[in-house]
Design a protein that fits this description.
Strand content: 15-25%
Organism: Debaryomyces fabryi
Order of helices and strands: EEEEHEEHHEHEHEHEHEHEEHHHEEH
CATH topology of one domain: Rossmann fold
Shape: flat
Bound molecules: S-adenosylmethionine
Subunit structure: Heterotetramer; composed of two copies of TRM6 and two copies of TRM61.
Keywords: Methyltransferase, Nucleus, S-adenosyl-L-methionine, Transferase, tRNA processing
Main location: nucleus
Number of strands: 15
CATH class of one domain: Alpha Beta
CATH superfamily of one domain: Vaccinia Virus protein VP39
Subcellular location: Nucleus
Strand order of the largest sheet: 9-8-7-10-11-15-12
Largest sheet: 7 strands, mixed
């Protein structure tokens, strides 16, 4: 399998994302003789070979099932082994479209971390584009490199073990098919580092001279954003803007319009029922705690029923305030207004995104 293309049939050695539930996706490399043990049953890898990606797989004894999904960067992001904080699709998709990352783009990324965003970048730029990603933590670098290799992404990606703040981004002996104008010549930069402002001055010699270059710095604190903005300004980056991506789910529905008259009637009705209940308890000779009262004992006068024009088809006893007969949302016999409501916040904010651009003429004047 490869993150660059799709295939139908699962073979030995393929990466499969076993979908157990929305928040439970397990990446597995299909290996003869192995099995995936879950609370939904056991799933032998041997049976996966020859099945189609996307298919539902029943458990060993026909109990429970999982789905075998084809890996995409979006699914990988929610299933990968975390070695660091990662960039999720809510942010990465926004950054990719805002910086106009497309097939053929040349990306500079630091640090690689768990490789979550690296997968999205590598897939999006495709085999025509290039990704230069840097990680200074050696064990993380080794793991990310192996993962990129296993996923076929070294076809367009170079991962470098480097401290970009102290040692910059330049690479010696770049393979020819990765070079442009003899170097990296990046047209998009993404920095997810604790101190991006110390790496920004090092970008001069690795970004494109010919085209407009976009940068995004991903920082969790506003103090970091302030330092980043100062460094960007000092280096001649323009159009600086900070964005926060906060996911919200909106619910749109109809709300019944109720007359004040109806509300007053309803309040009177409640008071009358309450009063009748108290009287009934006082007067009842045979009253025992827990006795059920007959509904006719607390029936209210006819004038407590709502407007006959609105409720004529619904019969006596209809209550527009929720109890009693149910009204279908949007029922034409009633007046409605459209309302929207924010549902519980989706957890999406992880950082502030600071965007800026470098125009080629500024870049040339600033170069050393
Ligand atoms: N964006 C990544 C992802 O989506 O998986 C996560 C990046 S993680 C938050 C930050 C990474 O930057 C860490 O792995 C850290 O080791 C690395 N890092 C920090 N300072 C660095 C530096 N000066 N040079 C290179 N990498 C650095």
């Amino acid at each position: 399998m490869s993150f660059f293309e799709y295939k139908d049939i699962i073979e030995e050695g393929d990466l499969v994302l076993a979908f157990l539930g929305r928040n439970n996706i397990k990446p597995i490399t299909v290996t003869k003789g192995s099995q995936l043990n879950t609370r939904y049953g056991n799933f032998e890898h041997d049976r996966m070979i020859g099945m189609k990606y996307g298919e539902q797989m029943p458990g060993a004894r026909g109990v429970g099932f999982i789905h075998l999904l084809y890996p995409t960067p979006e699914l990988w992001t929610v299933s990968l082994p975390h070695r660091t904080q990662i960039v999720y699709t809510t942010d990465s998709s926004y950054i990719i479209q805002r910086l106009n990352v497309t097939s053929g783009s040349r990306i500079i990324e630091a640090g690689t971390g768990s490789g979550s965003f690296s997968h999205s970048f590598a897939r999006t730029v495709g085999l025509e584009g290039r990704l230069f990603t840097y990680e200074f933590h050696e064990p993380r670098y080794i793991e990310a490199r192996k993962e990129l290799e296993d996923h076929g992404l070294l076809a367009n990606t170079i991962i470098t073990h480097r401290d970009v703040c102290n040692d910059g981004f330049e690479i010696q002996n770049i393979p020819e098919d990765f070079q442009k104008n003899g170097g990296i010549c990046g047209d998009v930069v993404f920095l997810d580092l604790p101190s991006p402002w110390t790496a920004i001055p090092n970008l001069k010699n690795v970004i494109s001279h010919e085209s407009r270059v976009g940068i995004c710095c991903f920082s969790p604190c506003i103090e970091q954003v302030e330092k980043t903005v100062k460094a960007l300004e000092a280096e001649g980056w323009t159009n600086i803007e900070m964005v926060e991506v906060a996911g919200r789910r909106w619910e749109a529905r109809k709300d019944m319009v109720k007359d004040v008259k109806d509300v007053v009637k309803r309040l009177k009705d409640i008071q009358t029922r309450k009063h009748q209940g108290i009287e009934h308890r006082k007067n009842s000779k045979n009253h025992n705690v827990g006795d059920k009262r007959d509904i006719k004992d607390v029936e209210t006068a006819d004038d407590s029923t709502p407007e006959p024009t609105k409720f004529q088809n619904l019969g006596k006893g209809f209550n527009p305030f929720g109890k009693g007969l149910r009204v279908r949302e949007g029922d034409e016999q009633f007046q409605w207004r459209n309302v929207t409501k924010i549902e519980t916040e989706i957890k999406s904010h992880t950082s502030y995104l600071t965007f800026a651009y470098m125009n080629p003429n500024v870049r040339l004047n600033n170069s050393v």
